[in-house]
Amino acid sequence: MYHPARFIDREAVVGVELDRLSVTGFTEVDTGVFGERMFRALLSEGVTTPQALQAATGWGGDVYRVLWNGTDVVLVLAFEGDRAADARELAETLGGWASASIGVGSGRPDNTGLAFEGEEYAFVAHNGGSMLFVVSNDSKIGRDVRNRFWPTW
Fold first, then answer.
1. Residues 131, 153, 102, 97: is their CA dihedral positive or negative?
2. What are residue 130's DSSP bridge partners?
3. Domains and CATH numbers, the chain
4. What average pLDDT score do residues 51-61 get?
5. Most buried pick, 13, 70, 77, 151, via CB within 10 A?
């Protein structure tokens, strides 16, 4: 986190939960907190630096899970912003990042968010201060994992 004043004021970081995912043939290989710094680093590869900084600044907490089957990988990330606008802003910026960085083209509406599909897959949605992001190097697997969050997302 880049905001020392939050620690001085004892502002709590939001605890975010993401249930374990059981996907046939896949093993969970990592789980943890992505954090504001990693969002800035990730986004700096596909959007402008000011966009990356602005989108990451509203970080309130997150948790991610990475699944792997030896060939294909899926990342699922749940995020809570400090405010509802923070989740919306990060979701919009991640959508731009996915379109520019992983070659999935423009998004199409998918329930509460946008799905980006080519050979690879990304899904991003926000609801209030919450955001869900799913990305995979395999479109079918990414879509299957995303569907596990239906109808909430």
1. negative
2. 80, 127
3. 13-147 (3.40.1000)
4. 92
5. 77
CA pair distance 99, 47, nearest whole angstrom: 10
| Predicted pLDDT of residue 46 | 85
Q: Check if the beta carbon of residue 104 is closer than 8 Å to that of residue 117.
A: yes
Confidence bin at 106 (pLDDT 50/70/90) = confident
Distance CA 41, CA 39 (A): 5
